[in-house]
Amino acid sequence: MSASKQPLHKTSAGLVVIPIAVSCVLTGALSAALVLTGRWETALKAPLMIVAVLIYALVLFILGRSGIENVRGLERRASIDTLTRLPNRHTLGEDIERISQGDEELALAIIDLDGFKQLNDHYGHAMGDRLIARFAQELRSVCGREARCYRLGGDEFAALANGKVAGTILEGLCRTLLERLGTPLALDGRHFAMGASIGLTRSLPEDRAPASELLRRADVAMDMSKRGGKMRCTWFNESFDRRRERVREIEDEIRAGIAAGEFALAYQPLVDAETKQIVAVEALLRWNRGSERDALGPNVFVPIAEDSGLINPLGLWVLRQAACDARRWDDITLSVNISAAQLRNAEFPIRLGEVLEETGFPPSRLELEVTETCLVLDPVVAERTLDVIRSFGVRIALDDFGTGYASIGFLRRFRFEKLKLDRSLVELAGVDDGSRAMMLSSIALARALDMGVTAEGVETEEQAELVRLAGCDQIQGWLYYRALPAEDIDRLIAAQTALLAGGKEAAA
User: Fold this and answer.
1) Which residue in 192, 304, 375, 474 has a CA-CA distance of 20 to 30 Å to 211?
2) What are the pLDDT digits (tens) for 50-75?
3) With respect to CATH, is domain 262-502 assigned 3.20.20.450?
């Protein structure tokens, strides 16, 4: 027990003992005085007074003991997580500060569970609490005597080690934990798949950092583990801070860019595999940052917009602008990509309905493209949102198929209207027998599930012929068209319409 806590116990006990002693002394003195003064009757009542005082002292003693236990209970609750019985964040801070006073290496790991939110939403909070407690047992088992483990709150934990090569030891423990999590956790006869992203940092005697800074560094490293694919350990690096600063700058620039109208749309046509006529266009976001600033592609600024929440106003602008542009392209389908963040936003279907109503764009001509990542992150919410979107008459396409882990059950569950084969699968199909077989089986599967099929990234006639013979309905790629401004699409559609009209007149 710390020095600050010891006086509290001694003082509380003293407050109980002192009244008893004082009561006994006063009672004895009173009895002696009454006898000497000849007041015998009153003196005879002294024992009753003594009993009353002793009862009073006993009550004080019991209340004092109860108070001490209550204080001790409050101290325990202030330092221990009630669910897992692990030390909490406050205790971790105290331990870091205490160890930092010495001359030993200190290593800290922040552990954040992957996929816990989905399990919690699916099975309920009661089961979620039990899974947290079950993971805490696993963490204790891994750490043993080599590291102390903590629960920081929610699904976030920590482990702390000190001594020689503490960082090496702690990293080994974390990797052991990840190996164990490779096998689903067993609970009540069921098995729950749950991973972890881990951030590591260390503090050396010659370069001490306060507890708050060590926690921040470990948290930053943990975030990089999540971004790097999860189920991994990442050591903090100073370059992470520079990257985070750059990300914040881009966030501010995106916000200013939306207000200044710097974003624009380009449209890449999709052609019918047989007739090569334009049957659809995909809206692609572009950021006109000017010549004074570095160009940034969607692969850079879209993820930042997703993380910051800016994808919601930006995505809404894309939908509205694309609907306004495509409204004049009769019978041409409009494809728009939506992100995982948009799909998780409960208000997205409402906003989509408002855009369709405001612009008058036919829902049957709108096709929203989603990736597997959007759906895997939160399948329950995604399925609910897609059902609402379909009720408007909008179609859903699975983009970049062939790069993830979509199963037959996955495809049947979400009932996509279209499958878009990723360009990497199309490229490899021309040179690799295994990839060709995968592409053919994917198309056959899509047909069995009544889905249309589009081949992306087609750049050569050989690739176009291959996907055409394999059974693709539509082809998209630089072989036919690159992404173009809306005005160029106007001219292409007009020329195609005129050509078709001329052909009909000639046939007549």
Assistant:
1) 304
2) 666 667 667 666 666 665 555 455 44
3) yes
